[in-house]
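Thread: quick sanity check before group meeting

JM: Hey all, I'm pulling together slides for Thursday and realized we never actually wrote out the predicted structure for the chain we discussed last week. Dropping the sequence here so it's in one place. If anyone has concerns about the input, flag it before I start.
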Amino acid sequence: MIMKEICIIKYPGDTAIYGIGTYFEEYVYYFKNTGCKINLIEIENKLTDFYIKEDGNIRQIHIPFVKIPEIEKHNKGICRLLQLYIEDSENLVFHFQYPGNDNFLEIITKYFPLSKLVHTIHYFNWIRQINNDISLFEKIIKKKEDKKIKTSYRQVIDDYNKEKSYLEKQDHIICLSDDTYDLIKNVYQINSKLWLIPNGLREKNKRLSERQKMDLRKKYYIRTEEKILLYVGRIEPAKGIYTLVSCFDEIISNYPDCRLVIIGDGDIDGVIKECGSFLSKVIFTGRIEKKKLFQWYQIADIGLFPSYIEQCSYVGIEMMMHGLPVVASDGFGVKNMFHDRVNAKIAKIGNRKNLNEYRKNLKNSVIELLNSDLSEMQKAARKEYNSKYSIENMQKKYTELINSL
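JM (edit): ok, ran it. Output follows.
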């Protein structure tokens, strides 16, 4: 491993406590054990104190919000400050995690001309504007010079152009899924500096014995014969949770001895309203600590992953790591992780304008798994985790990337 100095650019936001937060933990864990020097550069959007903390080869540089109207002056101020603590060299790498702006990249290049720029794609700015519909996005970009398309989807096209310009300035781009890799290559027309590096996860918790699982079920007042269907993640439309809940009454009608457990925060009130008469069959935990979350993974019978779009979900990886059979969608990025009748039963989304098809497919897929022998799928889930999503696989890919810089 070539020794590098890595500068990870972090911004505040809710995503830091979800998937990207886990990504940072695993990323820092890897580099902490390589001898590379790590600078965690946190750029705040509120008034806080400036401080620096050091722990071995990891240095945290916390930069408070400064009220400067001109973005260029603000970015220059950040870079001047970083120059006091970071020396420019060919072994210096700036690693970005959020879609940024060209100005910041240009200024970093000016103040640190010898450094390399790397970006990991965790999400796209335009995605919510078109209800997470990648097919629609591809059609928009293909016809973006059409006057009608320009008028109807101006913001989507503007975001695409900004992201394309931003990504083209990077020395290397990390894609977390095959679908994103193909999108960047075919739609963004960038293919010379792409890396496919799926997320990896350490197996931190001891697996429970069957007796321990039974004791834990008793603790949560879950009967032995009761099947637990587990959803983990933010409660929002993109995750498919509303479509899932809308068909749960039919699932109960076919298989009365099951219970839906929803772990995560967001629009809990909205989902409660959807539950209606079967609310007693649904458990809402809110957002819980990892230790308790991993307990639920181990006592659950089936994982539910109805999301419309993902990059490389840590929830999905955690389900595989715990050997959970999964009902998953065929959404963007999701289909790269879950394979029909291997480690999951796939419910096709179908027509995005009429979700009755997806609703029906979700219901049928859950009922099929509830009535199946899940032992082979449990083994396949663990095999998929070990072969593709373990921390060792992630480390191997990042070692190749760092050595190429």
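AS: nice. The chain has a mean pLDDT of 92. The chain is about 45% helix and 20% strand.
JM: adding both to the slides.
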